[in-house]
Amino acid sequence: MWMKVIHKTRLGGRIVNADALIVLNREIRPKSVDLIVTSPPFGLVRQKAYGNVASTEYTNWFRPFAAALHRVLKPSGSLVIDIGGAWTPKQPTRSLYHFKLLLMLCEEYGFHLAQEFYWWNPAKLPTPAEWVAVRRIRVKDAVNCIWWLSPTPWPRADNRRVLQPYSDSMQSLLRSGYAPGLRPSGHDISAKFQRDNGAAIPPNLLAAANTDRNAHYLRYCKAKGVTPHPARFPHAIPEFFIRLLTDRGDVVVDPFAGSCVTGEVAERLGRKWTCVEIVAEYATGAKGRFLKPADTVVKHAKRESHYRIPRLGLNWAAGSNSPLPKDGGRRRPQIKAARRRVA
Question: Which CATH superfamily is domain 4-163+201-295 in?
Fold first, then answer.
């Protein structure tokens, strides 16, 4: 059996260069893992450097992993999968592969959907460029689905671990007061709603720009002559779920670890962890996350400004009133080349 431990930490964390199926089926005891949080290769149209499966074949490819993940999870544990969407080849419609994956996990392998999350990346570029920037018939795709699943309908969780600061409007409401009573929507708002609890329960829309500081990791990869992983998790995503779903000393596993951001966060939070990466170069580079001086350790600000989503309609008056394309954008518009100014 081929498996190489690249790095171990004082808490028992380890980076393993191996096929995840081998580790999950032979190296990890059944029902011993508290949390699996991972971002597997997406079912994309274009082949990526880190390897990915076509969206049409994705569920078949994932079935052996589904069985192995269910095998190692504790009955009260959680499986968290970050899974980006994909577009149908050569047309502006969406693939359903990530929804088919969810249905397969629940209907064939006995997982329960505890809650669906949506990771909004405010720094996402306007892609796919052909449909968004050229033909202008779609808006940019800036959200990943995150499925929170469990073998039980009652996984361990506590949202008090992930509270966030009150918004400016909520702080204003707390200062000015709020009239309790029945609303037109049918919701009966009690007087407890205006009680100041110090922080707010977050929604299932997670805002995290994928602009994490990876300077030390990138410098380490460059110094060792290894290629850094091109699709790195922002620290905030695995940290949210590790805080929400585990206690100190619990076991966290990432079977598609990439640059091992999950392990870095788990180590900092006092969890035991295993990160598995099949590409030796990526596993070697991940070691750099644990060999950094104290002044490069990620530190969280006590309070940061909120990401803000513009309210719908803010710029509608200034928008285009051109007629909609009768062919739905099938014909590609002619892009006029900018004229060069002659000095």
Answer: Vaccinia Virus protein VP39 (3.40.50.150)
